[in-house]
Write a structure and sequence with these properties.
The complex is a heterodimer of chains A (about 400) and B (about 150). Helices cover about 40% and strands about 20% of the residues of chain A. Chain A has 14 helices and 11 strands. Chain A has helices spanning about 25-40, 60-65, 70-75, 90-105, 125-130, 145-160, 165-180, 195-200, 230-235, 260-280, 295-305, 315-320, 335-340, 345-360, and strands spanning about 5-15, 50, 80-85, 110-115, 205, 210, 220-225, 240-250, 290, 375-380, 385-390. Chain B is mostly beta strands and about 150 residues long. Chain B has 2 domains: about 20-70, no CATH class; about 70-145, Beta Barrel (OB fold (Dihydrolipoamide Acetyltransferase, E2P)), CATH 2.40.50. In chain B, about 10% of the residues lie in helices and about 35% in strands. Chain B has 2 helices and 8 strands. Chain B has helices at about 5, 25-35, and strands at about 40, 50, 65-70, 70-80, 95-100, 105-110, 125-130, 140-145. In chain B, the strands form 2 sheets. A 5-stranded antiparallel β-sheet of chain B has the order 6-5-4-7-8. A 3-stranded antiparallel β-sheet of chain B has the order 2-1-3, with helices on one face. The longest helix of chain B is centred in the first third of the chain and has 8 residues, at about 25-35. Classes of the chains: A alpha/beta (about 400), B mainly beta (about 150). The interface between A and B is large, with 40 and 44 residues. Strand 5 of chain A pairs antiparallel with strand 4 of chain B.
């Protein structure tokens, strides 16, 4: 792909939180309508509808696989539809699918939708699912391993090796909450928190307290993607996709390329570097870093990998408030899984849609002044694969 | 009162998940039952894989054999689960899950047992211990090495 061939011209987003009465079909309909309206087009212009997998949601997924979603949202001229999933990296793989469709020329307007309703499940169903998802059934699950334990172990190792303090780790949650408080659709947008509050919240998986763990929530988002050529005609300020770079490690964090957080940094750093090179830009050109962490330690590892500061020192930068609103290096401006809410594969969609919002100057109170270029990442599995994307509201 | 009585759960809901061995991992569990820790080594390149695979993850050879492990290890990292675990593990809280580095060059996820949580320290010496968790399965776990 060459630079800036595709662009996003409109986005839609639903409030994130616990809304058991709001079905996933209703979320899909609502965000689709918002995205189409925001793009300044009509639903009849949409030629392809791509849906993300609903985590644990068999009914929605089956309906999507059987082609119901275009009908459910009123996209009557839709020619192509499919369900795409790669867990947390879904927002990336679905966009790659959209690029393929746009290349084919069958349509020049693709609508991408994510919808999730966790509130239909019991706590135990979710605890069971996330104990098993990403953990090895034979070698980890029988030991009472959970997703939180994995994040806790990485945090514990990271702190021991880099000398990062638990206060600095907690500061990531504080910064995310600050951003979320500026976001009308965030789950936790009422009250800021401080380090003391994070550390005194209930211990979940030592060293992680509940405010350092993400919360599963209902939500959804959508966007309209088109060719750069068309985008320039129909949109005043499109968000161009400037470059991507990807790599895949194998499943278990205990083996293969990603054996621990040290190899994780070595695994992640080249991906970000290649993405920047492909965009013809440097780290210093980035106005915002949209980091998909889900847990505070992953934010720090991603910051280390990007080279925002000296490796292992990212915690100090966060604690100084530099990643929060008004900081020198704004990170994760929607509050991410920790404070916006964890909507399954939607965390990546949320960050992507937020990137577009920032580049289009529509981020309201959370707007980073004059944001031109953003680097964004997604990852799937148990910290297994990683994709960095550079976006811009101009093509450098 | 345990979680079962507290929430009126069925036996099924509190039943601990057991490994589901495959053809190429069964010998590991057979050995564990005999209180032996074994690892799968490639006869062609010498690489040791854990968990064991159908093939060598280093050279893709299928020519592999089981070797006895030393039973020694070092703590790489740990977490202590205090809340939000699946029901079958609820009454075990707080319990330790950890990454253990074996001198054979592999890393294992397991529990640290027979250890005051205050004594946990990355890099500490550990030794394997076998827990018979069901009539069919014995899980290798780890405790601080006896001096």
């Amino acid at each position: 792909m060459s630079k800036g061939e595709f662009a996003i011209i409109g986005i839609g987003e639903a409030p994130c939180g616990q809304f058991p009465e709001r079905s996933e079909f209703e979320i899909a309909y609502t965000v689709a309508k918002l995205a189409v309206k925001d793009a300044g087009i009509e639903m009849k212009d949409v030629g392809a509808v791509l849906c993300a997998q609903h985590i644990m949601g068999e009914e929605y997924n089956t309906e999507a696989v059987f082609g119901r979603i275009p009908e459910a949202i009123g996209a009557r001229n839709c020619k192509i539809t499919c369900l795409t999933s790669s867990g947390g990296a879904s927002s990336f793989s679905i966009r790659k699918t959209a690029e393929g469709i746009l290349y084919s020329g069958e349509t020049d307007t693709v609508l991408v939708i994510h919808a999730q309703r966790f509130s239909q499940f019991t706590m135990n169903q979710m605890a069971k699912y996330f104990a098993i998802a990403g953990s090895d059934l034979e070698w980890e699950v029988p030991y009472g391993m959970t997703y939180n334990s994995l994040a806790a172990m990485i945090t514990q190792a990271y702190m021991t090796i880099t000398g990062t303090t638990i206060e600095q780790v907690a500061a990531v949650a504080v910064a995310c909450r600050k951003w979320a408080c500026l976001q009308p659709n965030a789950m936790f947008n009422k009250k800021e928190i401080n380090v003391e509050k994070v550390l005194s919240s209930r211990m979940v998986a030592y060293p992680l307290t509940s405010l350092m763990c993400n919360v599963l929530a209902d939500g959804g988002s959508a966007y309209v993607m088109t060719t750069a050529e068309k985008a320039r005609k129909v949109c005043r300020r499109p968000a161009y996709i400037l470059s991507d770079a990807s790599d895949y490690s194998h499943r278990g964090i205990t083996r293969s390329k990603v054996k621990d957080f040290e190899t994780m940094t070595r695994f992640l750093a080249p991906i970000a570097k290649i993405a920047l090179e492909r965009a013809g830009l440097e780290l210093k050109n980035m106005d915002i870093f949209e980091l998909y962490g889900s847990y505070p330690v992953v934010h720090l590892v991603l910051m280390d990998a990007l080279g925002i500061t000296e490796p292992g020192k990212s915690g100090a930068l966060v604690a100084a408030g530099e990643t929060g609103p008004g900081g020198k290096c704004p990170c994760t401006t929607n509050g991410e899984a920790l404070s916006f809410g964890h909507t399954g594969s939607g965390v990546g969609f949320g960050l992507f849609v937020e990137s577009v919002r920032q580049l289009q100057g529509k981020a309201g109170k959370a707007q980073v002044p004059n944001a031109r270029f953003i680097i964004e990442n997604t990852g799937g599995g148990a910290f297994m694969d990683c994709h960095f994307t550079v976006l811009g509201n101009e093509i450098p | 009162m345990g979680i079962k009585e507290l929430l009126n759960l069925s036996d099924e809901e509190v039943k601990k998940p057991m490994p589901k061995p495959t053809k190429w991992t069964q010998p590991f569990w057979d050995a564990a039952k005999q209180h032996q820790l074994v690892l799968k080594q490639c006869r062609d390149c010498g690489n040791i894989d854990h968990p064991p695979y159908l093939y060598c993850t280093n050279c893709l050879s299928e020519n592999m054999e089981w070797i006895a492990a030393s039973g020694k290890g070092k703590l790489y990292a740990y977490a202590i689960n205090y809340y939000m675990v699946p029901f079958p593990f609820w009454d075990d809280m707080p319990y330790v899950v950890a990454m253990i580095d074996l001198p054979e060059g592999v890393r294992m996820i397991s529990n640290i047992v027979e250890c005051d949580h205050k004594e946990l320290k990355n890099g500490m010496d550990l030794e394997v211990v076998f827990h018979e968790v069901s009539p069919e399965f014995t899980l290798p776990k780890w405790r601080p090495a006896k001096k």
